[in-house]
Specification:
Distance between the termini of chain A: 25 Å
Oligomer: heterodimer
Order of helices and strands of chain A: HHHHHHHHHHEHEEEEH
Number of domains of chain B: 2
Strand content of chain A: 5-15%
Number of strands of chain A: 5
Helix content of chain A: 55-70%
Structural class of chain A: mainly alpha
CATH class of the largest domain in chain B: Alpha Beta
Shape of chain A: globular
CATH superfamily of the largest domain in chain B: P-loop containing nucleotide triphosphate hydrolases
Number of helices of chain B: 11
Order of helices and strands of chain B: EEEHEEHEHHHEHEHEEHEHEEHEH
Number of strands of chain B: 14
CATH topology of the largest domain in chain B: Rossmann fold
Strand content of chain B: 25-35%
Helix content of chain B: 25-40%
Number of helices of chain A: 12
Structural class of chain B: alpha/beta
Radius of gyration of chain A: 24 Å
Strand order of the largest sheet of chain B: 6-7-8-3-9-10
Strand order of the largest sheet of chain A: 3-4-5
CATH architecture of the largest domain in chain B: 3-Layer(aba) Sandwich
Chain lengths: 341, 307
């Protein structure tokens, strides 16, 4: 067996599969997952059916399809954000608590193989959950409005986000001796990744340069959240009115109009392309399409930026875990004595 | 096979090991004795490449434990004092898992597991979940686990702790079997009489310092000054004591449970001379034997120096 095959199918993976699938927890988790996702799908479907009772045409059907898909894909991401840290945050720390970690360390498995095996086993379960959700997502195609490539890309974004959460959980499990603090830290990291980065866009939006030639884009930190690209994929449209601020002018943007706040709280609006005198500005270009209009990832799709950033974080967390895990740490640059016969 | 030179381990302000040195040649059973907190487990963890020493070095079959832990792991089997087992695995699957962790070929793993289960007397427990085994059976299974890659060296940290007398006897028998297979074994234990019977070499450690090390009987002889005789006579105890006390070689004469115990200086010829003197004095000697100081005496002596 070559090295790649050994790395992919190390003994930890098969042992974890056995242990995981022999308990009642795994079937229960799968059932609850499907029921929750199916429940949301059914609720959206039912409300759609009720509103479409009187009149229903192709355009409406496409809109309903988009709404259903958007709800399902976002809800699935949130569900996985709850499940994935729980799968990996105890992977190493529970071995310590159970006093089995030393027995693994004295085998010929390198520390990285132990981590990789734990990760692969956990991620396989996440992939299983994603596969289980496919029939529910197929409902979307009854309505239309969503193309297959949108679904595939959305699943890719979800899977990479789950992988990132899994690796962060694994890093927490390696860094903390106990499972409880590791789990708390992993959920904290999941919250920051999903919601904290979006919150950053609200608190510290991009200031618009009135001389800008490109449409404004939210700060790059916000691309860490998988929710942003999922919404972009689901709506198949640009990000409007999020993560940007219109400088010192007190002017806010509303589709095709520039509006300025009055002292009494009311607003006065102007046509966006008309110069409005001193203190006002000509409205900058509007974002269009699903690409990032400006900034660090200018010209990229939102999902591409998200996946890139998450994979960088995953790699860093995996390297950190591999350095932290071994009982005796050998830094790569440390000199070693000659190998005895 | 095992060489430990000036091994020191410091945790903050506490010195757990203070320049510990000893050697264990091929095929020996080395008993590692010491009170709780003496540094036995720390030494064994360093030898297993699970802990980095502050200074000094340790070699297992020529491989330095800090420089080549991977080679050390190939060559030794380690059984910790406390260990856990996985849920949802049978005894056979448990051994198969560790055999695969030691990169044993898949085709051989079943035979390895079967042979080891037979060695430790668990063949009929092959399909029982490991978390449902009793402590004694888990200890035996853990010993089998340490042997899945057929290591030349075994490090056993308190393998008999928490076992009932029957399980201890069974564990001792297994270790004797391993001795005949040529394994070099380092075993730490509190049960001194068992070590005397089982071990060929011994090391006494206390407060992180090696107090004595060498062949068991040599260490005992060094540490228990003088030799003792146990003499049983038919009646005439007072007379026998009166004959013994004036002898130059005799230090002390005491009555213990109806027998006479006499401490003396000298070799076997001196003991024979004492017997001749008793018989010449008309004492009817029923039995006359030499008592060797036990490991317990040696241990108490070695560990009492700093008290």
């Amino acid at each position: 067996m070559n090295r790649i095959a050994i790395a992919l199918w190390n003994p930890i993976v098969s042992k974890e599969y056995r242990s995981r699938m022999r308990t009642w927890r795994s079937p229960l988790a799968m059932t609850v997952y499907i029921l929750l996702l199916g429940g949301v799908g059914w609720a959206i479907f039912a409300s759609t059916a009720a509103s479409a009772r009187n009149s229903f045409n192709g355009t409406q059907a496409a809109n309903y399809g988009q709404v259903l898909f958007l709800w399902l894909i976002v809800f699935q991401m949130v569900l996985l954000a709850f499940i994935t840290p729980a799968l990996t945050a105890g992977a190493v720390s529970s071995e310590r608590e159970r006093q089995t970690i030393d027995l693994l360390f004295v085998t010929r498995l390198p520390a990285f193989s132990i981590l990789w095996g734990k990760l692969l086993a956990s991620m396989s379960f996440v992939i299983l959950l994603l596969l289980l959700s496919v029939p529910i997502f197929s409902l979307v195609f009854l309505f239309g409005g969503i193309e297959l490539d949108q679904v595939l890309i959305a699943f890719l974004v979800t899977a990479v986000a789950a992988l990132t959460l899994g690796i962060i959980g694994l890093a927490c499990s390696t860094a903390f001796k106990r499972t409880l603090p590791a789990t708390v830290a992993a959920y904290g990291a999941a919250f920051i990744l999903l919601a904290g980065s979006l919150l950053f866009g609200l608190l510290f939006p991009t200031n618009i340069d009135q001389n800008a030639t490109k449409a404004p884009a939210p700060p790059a930190v916000t691309y860490l959240s998988p929710l942003l690209p999922l919404v972009v994929i689901g709506t198949n449209g640009p990000v409007n009115g999020y993560g940007v601020r219109y400088g010192n002018f007190g002017i806010s943007q509303g589709g095709g109009m520039a509006c300025s706040a009055l002292p009494n709280g009311a607003q006065t609006c102007y046509a966006t392309t008309v110069p409005i005198g001193k203190g006002a500005f000509i409205n900058p270009p509007q974002p269009s399409g699903t690409t990032i209009p400006s900034g660090l990832f200018s010209g990229w799709q939102y999902w591409q930026a998200t996946i890139t950033m998450q994979l960088i974080i995953s790699l860093a967390a995996l390297i950190l875990s591999a350095l932290l895990l071994p009982p005796i740490r050998h830094l790569p640059w440390r000199r070693r004595a000659g190998v005895p016969a | 096979m095992i060489t430990v030179e000036g091994l020191t381990k410091v945790y903050g302000s506490r010195t757990a090991l203070d320049h510990v040195s000893f050697e264990v040649p091929d095929g020996e059973i080395f008993g590692f004795v010491g009170p709780n907190g003496a540094g036995k487990t720390t030494t064994l963890r360093i030898l297993s490449a699970l802990l980095e020493p502050t200074s000094g070095r340790a070699l297992v079959d020529g491989a330095d434990v800090t420089e080549h832990p991977d080679l050390v792991h190939e060559r030794l089997g380690y059984m910790p004092d406390f260990f856990g087992v996985y849920d949802q695995l049978t005894a056979g699957e448990y051994l198969d898992f560790y055999a695969s962790c030691y990169r044993q070929p898949k085709a051989r793993r079943k035979k390895i597991a079967d042979d080891l289960l037979e060695l430790v007397g668990l063949t009929d427990r092959r399909d029982q979940a490991v978390d449902t085994l009793s402590r004694g059976l888990k200890q035996r299974l853990c010993l089998a686990r340490a042997l899945v890659h057929d290591p030349a060296v075994l490090l056993l940290d308190e393998p008999a702790s928490g076992l009932d007398p029957r399980a201890r006897v069974e564990m001792r028998e297994i270790l004797k079997e391993l001795q005949t297979m040529g394994k070099t074994i380092v075993i730490s234990s509190h049960i001194l009489p068992e070590l005397t019977e089982l071990c060929t070499m011994i090391g006494i450690i206390d407060q992180g310092r090696m107090r004595a090390t060498g062949p068991v009987h040599e260490v005992i002889r060094q540490l228990t000054a003088g030799r003792r005789l146990r003499i049983t006579v038919l009646g005439q105890k007072e007379e026998a004591a009166a004959v013994l006390k004036p002898l130059a070689a005799i230090h002390e004469v005491v009555m213990v449970n109806g027998t006479i115990e006499a401490q003396y200086d000298g070799d076997d010829a001196a003991a024979a001379g004492i017997l001749q003197t008793l018989i010449a004095a008309g004492i009817k000697v029923f039995s006359f034997s030499q008592l060797e100081g036990g490991l317990e005496d040696a241990f108490m002596k070695a560990t009492a120096e700093d008290i």
